[in-house]
Give the backbone structure.
Amino acid sequence: MKDLFASLYEWFGLIPLYSTDLGDMLRGYDVTCTDYINTPWYLYIGWIMVGVTAFVYALQYHIIDSARWNKKQHWWLFALVIVLINFIAAFSISFNEMNAGDYCKDLHPTTADCVMFGLSNAIWSFIFFLLITSIPFIRKASTNCRHTTFWKP
């Protein structure tokens, strides 16, 4: 699972938005620079992203599920909340880990790398929210918001 999240955040190796040094640190490259046995932050941040996105989806479509919250601007509001929470989570975790210095000293991650990793996490959370709100089978349990999607708000 760690490799799945790593490949997502690194955009399958095509256009990583941040340095490979930060990527190695988030994979868990240890202090001795020998193996990936440190904390696998890709895995934790990936599950945080999935959990936050699924919770906000459930909040809009199944918990609140109000006729007042089924307009397109409300979908965008919830999407913005998801993007902001996931950006802050990814940035703060990677930035704090970088500042803690508990990684291989051959790696040189920067604050800009942490910002770009947060942006990558935010983009993937938006894509995930777009996908789960586009599937009619999942939205069918909602009474008022079942027709509110990115495609047809």
About this structure: The helical segments are 2-9, 20-27, 41-64, 72-100, 111-134, 136-139. Residues 2-139 form one domain.
